[in-house]
Amino acid sequence: MNFDFVGKMNKNKNMAREQHEEENALVIWNISNCPIPDGHDPLQVVPRIQTALEKLRRDRPYGPLSITAISNNLTEIPGEDVMRKLSSTGISLKHAHGVQTDLYQWASRNPPPATIMVITGHEELEHLASTFSGLEEEGYIILPTYPQPNPAPPSLPKLCFWETLLSDADNKLVTTSRLIFHGTGGYPWSCSVCYFDAPILEDFTNHLKSETHAYFEWDRFASKNKIDRTNPANMQLGRSQEWDLLAKPDMIRRAEVLKLRGAFAPPRSRPVDANSFKEPFKSGE
């Protein structure tokens, strides 16, 4: 018998077993829908999440663990001070309007067996029900976590409640899971609306306060609500030089495309309601 060959086979089996035991995990946290409760230390969020996950695996560590906090208004919720504290503990921060895209992107790079914890409000979880079902069929473990209702239904598992997870006295706050950033482009701070990645937190917060970011947020709103962006009256021209440098070329390009399409163009969209768009911040704050 070729003992070298048998030894290599056993080694490969052991490696496969270790890889299976150290499955990857993602925590995607919509911090707007599920903020840190009053009285809780932002610096303790990561160890609470890590130990809660490891308890599910009977204290066996996960492999690479990614935690991403998303919001469409990070400068307000949780605010810059808390953002800085969360970043210092290894949490990636992302400006986005939902978690679904991140779920699919992460799953495409991390095949099952793997675990995904989604921390958000009840409404978004309901919208994600079919997504969760599809991921579970593929072999992922889905752990929805949300603010505790009042009164709490006794049928729901304890881990489901965000406040309970953060307050669990049983959590020993000692973990061996390897936390890695889940940012895009290799950076832990990103904006999905502007396709912007930041190497440092200050660049990220400055971007969120910029007129460029404000314009692309408005453009997203205008597209979603079918606002006519060939009409100068709708474009808020004159707001700032930075805004105009983006808005004018966009308006001209859309007008040219509309002219070329002629009779095949879709009907004109309704005019913008000036009071219907609310910015997450004011430029310069």
UniProtKB/TrEMBL annotation:
- In what residue span(s) does the NYN domain sit? 26-143
According to its UniProt entry, the protein's GO biological process terms are:
regulation of gene expression
User: By its UniProt entry, which InterPro entries does this protein fall under?
Assistant: Marf1, NYN
Q: Which Pfam families match?
A: NYN
Q: Which GO terms describe its cellular component?
A: peroxisome
One Gene Ontology term of the molecular function aspect: RNA nuclease activity
Lineage top rank: taxon: Eukaryota
What PANTHER family is this protein classified in?
Answer: ENDONUCLEASE OR GLYCOSYL HYDROLASE, LIMKAIN B LKAP
Record's protein name? (rape) hypothetical protein
Q: Which organism is it from?
A: Brassica napus (Rape)
